[in-house]
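Submission sheet (multi-component)
Chains listed below:
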Amino acid sequence: MTITRNKITALLVRTLFLGALLLFFFSPFYVQFIYAFKTRADVAVTGLSFPTSLTFINFRNAFDGTSLFPAFVRTSIVTLFVVFILQTTGAMAAWIIARNQKNRVYNSLYYIFLAAIILPFQVVMLPLYTQFREMSMLNTLQGLILGIAGFQLAYNIFLMTGFIKTVPLELEEASLMDGAGQWTTFWKIVYPLLKPITMTTLVLNFLSAWNDFMIAVVVGFKESVRTLQYALYMFFGQYSTRIHEAFAAFIIAVLPVVILYIVLQKYIVDGLTSGAVKG
Amino acid sequence: MKRFFALLMITVIAASAVFAAGGQDSSGTTTISVIHYMGELQKRDGLKQLIDGYKALHPEVEFEVTAVETSNYLTTLKTMIAAGDTPDIIFGKPKEYTDLIEAGHMADMTGASFVENLDPGAVPSVVYKGKVYGLPVDLQSIGIYYNKDVFAAKGLDIPETWSELVALCDTLEGEGIAPFAHPYKDGWTVFVDYFADEYVVRADYPDMYEAIEAGTKSFADYPHFKDTLARLKKRASYNAGDDWGTDNGTAQNMMATGKAAMYINGSWAIGDFLNNFPEASIGYFPLPAYEDASMNKMPIGVDDAWMASAASENMDIVLDFFKYISTPEAAMQWMKATSTISLSANIGDYEYDAISQDIVDYLEAGDTTNFHEPMLFSSALEDVYRNMIVEAAASSKDLDTLVAEFDKRIDEVR
Amino acid sequence: MTKNHHAKSFLFLLPALIIFLFVVVVPFFRGVTISMTSWDGLAKNMNFVGMENYKRIFSTDTILTPLKNSLQFTAITLIFDNILGLALAVLLVASTRRASFLRVAFFMPFIISLVVSSYMWTYLYSSVLYPVFGLQNPLGNPETSNLGVALISVWRNSGYCMLIYIAGLKSIPDSLYEAARVEGAGRIASFFKVTLPLLVPSLSINITLILAWGLKEFDTVMVATGGGPGRSSMSLAFYVYKTTFVWNKAGYGQAIAVVMMLFIVTVSTIVARALRSREVEL
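Outcome: structure written.
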C-alpha cells in the first residue's frame, strides 16, 4: 500500500514540478506567440487567450518599410563568413597546436588562446573601435566579420585542440609518409574525423555570429550596416508601441537558429558534453 | 571537399560584390542624413511633411532619417561622431550639448538666414558663447495635464502652491482616484516629472549647473536640490498600482479616461491627447513648486530644435532647409501637425487647441520663466544627472545619502 | 621533421594567428596604453597620466555598485542555473521521445539571442506580471532591478546546465546504482551518495562557464534596463561601456576594463583551482 502511495506522490511531485518549470520557461514564448499572431484589436478584446485564428499581418508590417529585412540579409552574410573563417582557420590552427604541443612556441600559443577565452570584450572594445576607425573599417561588414570571428577563435581552438588530441596519429603519419602534403592530409584525412566537434563548433559559431550584439554596438551601428540584433534593439526603441510587430520580428529572427538546432541537436548535445567534459 | 571550397569561394566573391555595391549613391542626388529622438507620431509626421515640402522644391535632395529612442540618443550620437560618421542634421538643443560644441562638432550658424525668421525672444536659447548653434522650432513647457471633468466632479481647483497640490492629491486618494498617472516604465518620463518642478525654481539658482560642472560647487551646496528631490519623491509616492510598469501610452489613457486625475509631461504630448482622446476635456497648469503662489510661473523654453554637424559637406543645403522650416508657411504646417507653439515670427493669427491655449494664456500674461537661459550641464554630466534623478525617485535611501552619492558620480565624470 | 614541414605547419596556423593578433592581441596592448591617458574618446590627442586612472578607481567607491551588481547577478545565476539545470536533468534524463522533446524545448531559451530574451522578459515584467499576479515591475525598483535582470539570465542558462548534467548523469555506470540498491539504499539516498558526487565534474564545468559569463554580462543589462533605474542594475561591463562611450572618459573607462579583466581572471583561476583539487579528491 505504502509503496503505491509513495509512487503516486512521487509522480505527482514530478509532474507538478515539471509543470511549474514549463510555465516558467514557456510563458515568455507564449506571450510572444500571442502578440505576434493576433492583431492589436484582437488582443484588446481577448487578452492573453490562445488565438482562434492566426494572422500574419504583424509579420508583414514588421518588415514592410522598416530596415529589418536588410539587416536580416546582412546578418546572414556575416554569419556565413564568420562560420567559414572559424571552421577553417580555427581547425587548422588547432591541428597544428594539438600535434606540436611539445614545442615551446606552440604550447605557449595554446595557453595564450586559453587565456583569451576569459578575456572580457570590454578590455579590447575601445582600442578595436579606434583601430577600425583608423583603418576605415568601422561600419563595414568586413569589420564585423573579423571582429566576431576574431573574438571566437580562442574558444574554437580550445574545443578543437581537446578533441584532436583524441584522434590517433597513425592515419596522418601514414598519409604523410605516402607523400601527401600537410594540406591534403589535413583536409582529406583528419578533418572528416573531426565531424563531432566541427558540428558543435558550427552551431556555436553560427550562434555567436547570429546573436551578436555587443560587437555590433561598437563597430557596426550605422543604419546601413546594422545586423539583426542591433536592428531589433533599435526597432523596439523606435517603435516601442508596436509590440505586435516587434514580437513577430523576434520570431523571424529566432527561426533560423531554432531550425538549425532541431536539425543538428544530436551533434550539439554530444559535442558540448564530450568536448566540454574533457576540457 | 575541393568542390565545396570552390563553391564557397564563388559565394565569397559574389558576396564581396554585394559589399562593394552597398556604398554607391545614385548619381545626381545629395543625401542629407538626419537624426532625432522625437517619439511622438505627430512629430514624425510633421518632419515628414517638412521634408516632403522641401523635396518638392528641391527634387535633387534626398533625406535619410534615423529615429532613436530618447534614452539611447546621446550614446548613439556620440558613437557616430567619434566614428567620423556624424549625421548632417542633429535634433537637439545646443545648451544641452555644450561639450560637443566645445569639441568642434557642431556647426556655427551665426548669421544664417533662418535667424531673421525667428521670434527674437527665442534666439538666446540656442546661443552659446555668443554664437548661434541651432534652429529653435517650437516652444516647450513641462507641467501638469489634468482631467477637467474629474476636477469639476470633485469640486477641485487648480493648486497654486505646493501644499495645495499635496492636499489635492490626498483628497483624490481619499476619493479612490489615483492622483497621478505615472508612466515611469519609460525612464525618461521620470526626469520629465522632476523637471516639471525644477524648471519652476531654476531661475532662482541660475549658476548651479555651471558651478557644478566647473567643480566649484557640488549638489550638496544647494539645499534646494534636496527639496526638489523630496517633492519628486512625494509625487512618486502616489502610486496608481504599478507605476514602474506603466508606459506612456497607458498613463495617458488613464488620465484621459478619468482613472487618474493628473499626468505630468511636456507640451510635446498635447498632440497625443488631441489625436487619441479628442473627447476628453483636458487642461494644463504649471507645477506649483513654491509655497508662494506668485513665485510659481509657467516654465518655458525651446522644445524642438535642430543643430547641424560642423563636418557636414552639405552645409548650404542644410541651411537652406533650416530657412525653409522657419518660414511662416512651414511653421504653420508644423504647428498644425504637431499641436505645438511655434517660435517663428510672423505666424499671424492662429487658433490654438484648448490645452495649448492654457499655455498661451500664461505666455500672454508674461507669467513665465525661461528654463533654457542658464548654462546647463554638458551632455556627459546630463546623462549622469538624469539617471540619478530616476534612481532618486525609486530609491528608498534617505536624501542626504543620495545627494552625497550623486556628487561622487558627478566627480567621477566631470 | 624537416624545416619545410615546420614552415608549412606554421603557415597552417598563420591565418588564425593573424586574425587573433589583429582583433584581440594588438587592441589589448593598445588598450593598456590608452588606460594610462586621460583621453576622452573624442579629441585628437591623448595625454599621458601614468597610473592616475588606476589610483582613481581604487580611491573612489563608484566602482562598488557595478561590482556588487555583477557579483550578485553571477551568484544568482550560478545557484539557480545549477539547481534548475540539475532538476531538469534528473526529470528528463530518460531516452523516451517525450523526454527528448522536452529537452529540446528547455534548451530553447539558450539559443535565442540576449536581445530577444531581454525584450520578451521586460514585456512580461511590465505588462503581464501586474495584471495577472499583481506584482510590480521588478525592473523599475532599484532594489529589485538587478534581480529582475538576473532572472532573465537564470531562465536562459538553465537549459545549458541541464545538458551538461544529463551528459554527466548518463556517464554514471548502472553498476554503481546496483551496488547501492544491494546495500539497501533508497532512491533519495542513492541520489546523494552515488549521483551527486559523480556529478561534480559537470558542476565544475557549469560553475566555471557561468561564473565567466555572469561577470562579463553586457547585452541583457543594456537591453532590459540600461543599467537603471540609476545604476541599480549596471554591470561592470556596461559601466565600462558608459564611461568610455557616453561620459567621455575613454582613458578612465579603459583602465576600469583592465581592472575588470584582472578581477575576472583572478576569480576564475581561484575557482578553477579549487574545483580541480576537489575533483582530484573524488
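Remark: The CA atoms of residues 125 and 372 of chain B lie 6 Å apart.
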